[in-house]
Automatic annotation (TrEMBL):
Phosphatidic acid phosphatase type 2/haloperoxidase domain ranges (all copies): 69-180
Localization terms from the record: Cell membrane
Source taxonomy: Bacteria, Bacillati, Actinomycetota, Actinomycetes, Kitasatosporales
Membrane-spanning parts: 40-57, 69-89, 115-134, 141-159, 165-187
Species assigned in the record: Streptomyces cahuitamycinicus
Protein name: Phosphatidic acid phosphatase type 2/haloperoxidase domain-containing protein
Coiled coil: none
Keywords carried by this UniProt record: Cell membrane, Hydrolase, Membrane, Transmembrane, Transmembrane helix
Predominant location: membrane
GO CC annotations, alphabetized: plasma membrane
Molecular function in Gene Ontology: hydrolase activity
SMART domains to which the protein is assigned, alphabetical: acidPPc
Membrane topology label: Multi-pass membrane protein
Amino acid sequence: MAGLADSGSNPDVDLLYDINGLAKDAPAWFDRVMEYVGEYGLLLAIVLLVVWCWWTVRRRGDDDAASTVAALVWAPLAAGVAVLVNVPIRGFVERPRPFLDHQGLEVLVQGKTDYSFVSDHATIVMALAVGLFVANRKFGLIGLVLALFGGFIRVYMGVHYPTDVVGGFALGTAVALLLSPLAMALLTPVVRAVERSPRVGWLVRGGGRAAGGDTVIPEARSDRAPERDLAA
């Protein structure tokens, strides 16, 4: 099943040339920036977005902090599971990289010799983004935009067909959503146990709030010496 897009009249190939053609017309410095962003930058940005969301949640200390943090823990786990699921898919389809079958592409990253379908990058960033969306809608929407842009860049770089990216998006979304109920059922009790811990509870709930959601008020200390019992 190696030849998913062997024909030049295939819309997948046509779209590949249209998007990758933008790299040919762009300045060399811009292509270098896109190469770094597509290979490392966007993945790092989504990971930092997950960390930012966690920091915001623990600092606010809402009553549902444990379930939100559990969802944030699931996001990178979902990405890892999705990549593992992709291993047999890539081995079964055996689709070569587009630059091996089609001439005239502007390839920004050299040395890609593994199979093209499904895109690992697209799978990882979408699984992270969807997992983040499960935890927090606002941060999740930003993550989804970054993931979509990351998929576009993979085609721009000439290392994936558009359908490689779409397949990665579908795989990442499916794993993050379909396994989310099971993951939350397993992770939430663990996170709640961490929340109740006096040593590491700050990982889940900060901001001076206790596990029950009540504000912790330090006991007032008196500097006055205790009065002597005059009757004594």
